Amino acid sequence: MAQITDKTRAEVREVVYEFFAEECETAIENIHDETNIISDLDGDSLMFLELIEIFKKKYNLNIELKTIGKFAVKNPVKTIGELIHMQMLIIEHENNIINM
């Protein structure tokens, strides 16, 4: 588990925006928190898993994918902003996210 700081928030936002800009071949200026990952960017769940792995390595997280899956079923992510929020919760709470 990690403490969420303004620096962490900025890093996560930057990584998410850059990731989707590159993966979806769009200008980063076209991405904002309300951007729908599927309908606006043609994103998919594999991208989400890839992004989770990036953050697991970056923040040395100990969280199981099945835990994230269970949380995501109850708290679906549709937009970039929702994805960033979920990633902050994962960084902060790791496997305890399921108890939220």
Keywords:
mainly alpha, Non-ribosomal Peptide Synthetase Peptidyl Carrier Protein, Chain A, 4 helices, 56% helix, 0% strand, globular
Report on the structure:
- It is a single chain.
- With 100 residues, the chain is mostly helical.
- It has one domain: Non-ribosomal Peptide Synthetase Peptidyl Carrier Protein, Chain A (Orthogonal Bundle).
- 56% of the residues lie in helices and 0% in strands.
- It contains 4 helices and no strands.
- It has helices at residues 6-23, 45-58, 65-74, 80-93.
- Helix 1 crosses helix 4.
- The chain is globular.
Write the layout of secondary structure elements.
Layout: H1 6-23, H2 45-58, H3 65-74, H4 80-93
Helix pairs in contact: 1-4
